[in-house]
Amino acid sequence: MYDVIVVGARPAGAATAMLLARRGLRVLAVDRARFPSDTLSTHQIQPSGTERLRRWGLLDRLLAAGTPATERVRFDLGGTVLQGRFPEGVLYSPRRTVLDAILVGAAREAGAEVREGFHVAGLVWDDRGVAGIRGRDGTELRAPVVVGADGKHSLVAKEVAAPVQRNVAPRTVASYAYWEGVEPWKGSEPWKGSEPWKGSEPWKGGEHRAGGEQRHGELYHRPGRAVAAFPTNDGLTMVYAAAPIDKFSTWRTDVEGHLLATLDRCGDLGERVRAGRRVERLRTTVDLPNVVRRAQGPGWFLAGDAGLVMDPVTAQGIGNALADAELLAETIAEGRTDYQRRRDAARLPIFGLTTGLAALRPAKGLNAVLLKAIARREASTEQFLGVFAGTVPVRTFRRSIPRMLVQRARGWAVA
Prior knowledge:
By secondary structure, the chain is of the alpha+beta class. 34% of the residues lie in helices and 25% in strands. The protein has helices at residues 11-22, 47-55, 59-64, 96-110, 155-159, 248-251, 255-263, 269-274, 317-334, 339-357, 365-375, 378-389, 394-409; strands at 4-7, 27-31, 69-76, 81-85, 91-92, 113-116, 120-126, 129-135, 140-142, 145-148, 164-168, 172-180, 215-222, 225-231, 236-244, 277-278, 283-285, 290-293, 296-297, 300-302, 308-309. Strands 3, 4, 5, 12, 13, 14, 15, 16 and 17 form a 9-stranded mixed beta sheet that branches. Strand 13 and strand 14 (225-231) form a beta hairpin. Helix 1 (11-22) packs parallel to helix 9, helix 2 packs across helix 9 (317-334) and helix 9 (317-334) packs antiparallel against helix 10. The longest helix has 19 residues, at 339-357. The N and C termini lie far apart (59 Å).
């Protein structure tokens, strides 16, 4: 008999298991995968997630694996370029073979039992609600709480018939791969030059760069396209491109050709990527739902993509998984009942923003004016980046929009 059984042991599940075990609960985490292993991923751990790893004592392990930091982002929207640092912290884009293994290892160290290669066939029920899981081999394992952290096609969510609260049809086809030998973008900030940020904490200063050259993350939006290029482990660059889902039939006929043609629309990125070498196969998917499910019920909870999943265009998945784990561990260990409310308050604003951006439409009218206003001021750019970093609430940013527009109208360029 366990206190909690967690189905799924990638970031949401492994982190939940670790945090609950650290609180003294008897925890079992199961996953059909074995670790280390790869999976489709946005890669990016937004700064709010980085801070959680630091607090949990795991950031040093990520750095020891040679994971480079991204302190600055260049966001090129085709007529407006936003460049800046995150207002708090830095971003990392680790390979999932690295990150997931670190989290699983930390869960075990905390005292959780982790069973790899375990296939869940269904749930066990009693008159109270969910009471455990049943393995494909017929094994029944019981606990008063079962956490579904088993991804966007969650078996747990299906078994409990978790109500869908929001459902926006998939909007993009996405492809990514890893290249070596991609030269970094060599521009500088429009303000203050390109001196590295020297913070007071080790993960905010030069020490966190894991031995690699300091790099910008690159984001591009073009009509009907989104592109990202970020440094990852082993000196590689993860390059991603997305197109509207109705272009999939054409996109699939020559994925690499269409991806490279998209990069050619993004300054010199196409040239720099072509000068490198792709080292692994291209990964392509249209399985990119935008779904919000009810996240708790009698004897069960949902965490990570099992409870809320959105298009990768804003790269929120890993950060959301870690945030859900922290919130859920607190909820279970302290007997709270407000997990659903607190999760929705934190996630739904960025969910709405993400589904809008995933339409891949160019900014027009007032939105175009706003972006130009943001680009002119360092503080505004940092606040904008903070929304995606998870350090500035969407509501806070929206409240500042009138001020930004007034400053634009008056021609203020005060940093």
